[in-house]
């Protein structure tokens, strides 16, 4: 009788123990800490991201700042020039060129798992019944991201909105 009770207890505890152990054996996700450098609907430089499609730019060294040529404001570029690239990298998400105002970009989460960094973003669009400014915009969100502790050189960056992959690019984080 005691043997049967022990079997029942073990059978009941086994799924709970496996449920606690197995997730620890799989790949771990780490939420990366980030700070907004700039979030605008257009830079004051008069230049816009030319594509109408979303884009993502990764800046891992000061030499890569040329990728942002006049796409962000001078204050943001100054911040990027002084950033500690040993501990951080910068990431800019552009919604694409828009013919009116009312659009925006909001980076919500950045997750690292294995050699992939997933950027979860929300693209805001103006509601049809609201009046929009008739000015060309190029909404973007520029952030400083703390590098993951376990960092492989080549990373795959995936931009996702509402669970859908928008862009995938490769970048080297030194």
Give a verbal description of the structure:
The structure is a single chain. The chain is of the alpha+beta class and 174 residues long. The protein has one domain (28-172). It contains two helices and nine strands; from the N terminus they run αβββαββββββ. The chain has helices at residues 2-25, 74-82, and strands at 29-31, 34-40, 55-59, 88-94, 104-113, 116-124, 140-146, 154-161, 164-172. It has a five-stranded mixed β-sheet, with no helix packed on it. The protein is globular and about 45 Å long.
Inertia-based shape: globular
Helix content: 10-25%
What about the largest sheet? 5 strands, mixed
Whole-number count of domains: 1
Strands in their spatial order, largest beta sheet: 1-5-6-8-9
Oligomer: single chain
What ranges have pLDDT less than 50 throughout 5 or more consecutive residues? none
Strand content: 35-45%
| SSE order | HEEEHEEEEEE
Over the alpha carbons, how many angstroms does the gyration radius reach? 22 Å
In whole angstroms, the N-to-C terminal distance is 63 Å
Total strands: the figure is 9
Number of helices: 2
Helix and strand composition category: alpha+beta
């Amino acid at each position: 009788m005691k043997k049967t009770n022990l079997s029942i207890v073990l059978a009941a505890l086994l799924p709970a123990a496996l449920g606690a152990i197995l997730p620890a054996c799989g790949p771990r996700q780490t939420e990366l800490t980030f700070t907004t450098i700039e979030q605008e609907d257009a830079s004051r430089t008069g230049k816009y991201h030319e594509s109408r499609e979303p884009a993502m730019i990764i800046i891992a060294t000061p030499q890569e700042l040329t990728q942002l040529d006049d796409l962000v404001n001078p204050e943001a570029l100054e911040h990027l020039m002084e950033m500690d690239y040993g501990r951080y990298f910068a990431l800019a998400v552009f919604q694409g060129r828009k013919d009116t105002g009312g659009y925006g970009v909001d980076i919500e989460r950045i997750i690292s798992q294995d050699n992939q960094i997933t950027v979860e973003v929300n693209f805001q669009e103006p509601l049809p019944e609201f009046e929009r400014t008739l000015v060309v915009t190029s909404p973007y969100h520029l952030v400083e991201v703390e590098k993951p502790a376990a960092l492989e050189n080549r990373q795959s960056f995936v931009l996702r909105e509402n669970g859908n992959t928008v862009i995938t690019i490769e970048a080297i984080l030194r």
